[in-house]
Amino acid sequence: MESTRTTFVIPSTLRGCQFLSFHILYSASQHVVCIILFCLIFNYLVEFAISRPTRVKVPVLGYRYMLEPTWFVRLRFVWTGGSIVRDGYERFRSSIFQIRKLGTDIVIIPPNYIDEVRKLSKDKTRSVEPFIDDFAGKYTHGMTFLQSDLQNIVIQKKLTPRLAQLTIAMQEELDLALSLEMPMMTEYIEPLRQEMIIALADGGWQKTTLNRLYKLDSLLKESQRLSPVFLRGCPIEPHYYYLYTDNKVVTFNRIFHEPINLSDGTHLPSGTRIAVPSHAMLQDPLHVPGRSPPTKFDAFRYSALREESDATSKYHFSMTDSSNMAFGYGKYACPGRFYASNEMKIVLTTLLLRYDFKFRDGKGRPKNITIDSDMFPDPRARLCVRLRSPVN
């Protein structure tokens, strides 16, 4: 028995053989555990060293257990980023926290810092760089946007002022597209159609016609509130829209080129990337106006507010403020949002007046597809479409 513990001579008894096997396996398992621990510690130290120049002293969310590799947290953000941001917003509603995203860390700032950051000069903060980082701008000619503001100037000074002249051209282009190619909630369709018919009867396809489509404008704004382009979904009443509940959006992306000290003393080093949990805010009763709760899809939420308030422009689809940043906010807000608003109104008006829509029998609204911080409609979704009688 003793020889089996000190030599590798095959013992003469089965009991000795069993002990030798256990001893070897136990020693091997110790080595495996040591190797795993060494790799975890080494990985942690390397990541700490790499991120230390831009570390911010705020809570970091996303880790499920101590010494979890950061690369795994970043990878998991692709599928569960929404729940991470939502959890952070609920826990630190008025405080700053940080998330680990693929390729970068993002400092999430609450609404009370938005105007403070918005007023910073272009030399201190940039909004274009986060998009270039997220969409592989180095390989998709995105670096052009860092070198010039020409695209914004053209949209703001050439395109937007000519929307009145472009309205008819946009409608003619849509007619051509529908001639070559080809569900909403039923309680909203007829009120929308009546509004469209009345508006078109008084002037036809003009920019002023589109401005009178209050209900349609409200529908677009409410849909954008719950399904923004840079999304993560939210839990809302299943009778209305239902989205993946695992996700959340962040917008107002900025990268600091100089160290910044916020009003509460928080130090953000140069190179820090920040964002705002805008979609979480758009599910918060503190930021969502109207009679219906923010978890409910109310197509006429904003048209009712326009009728009840003197500040009608505040509730336009194309308007932005610190509580609704689906189009961005401040000097970096999307310059093409006015054109996009007109275009969507023309498309929806034409479709609703020409066709009837419904889901297939037994089917409801298709779920959106979300990847990282972006939302897409399901390309496999199918709707039933029927040509309506011509509207005079």
How is the secondary structure organized here?
Layout: H1 3-6, H2 14-51, E1 60-61, H3 70-91, E2 97-101, E3 104-108, H4 114-118, E4 125-126, H5 128-134, H6 144-147, H7 150-159, H8 163-180, H9 186-201, H10 207-211, H11 214-226, E5 251-256, E6 260-261, E7 267-268, E8 273-276, H12 278-281, H13 301-308, H14 337-354, E9 355-359, E10 369-371, E11 374-376, E12 383-387
Parallel strand pairs: 1-2, 3-8
Antiparallel strand pairs: 2-3, 4-5, 5-8, 6-7, 9-12, 10-11
Please summarize what this structure is.
The protein has 392 residues and is an alpha+beta fold. Among the domains are: 21-54; 160-239 and 293-387, Cytochrome P450 (Cytochrome p450, Orthogonal Bundle), CATH 1.10.630.10.
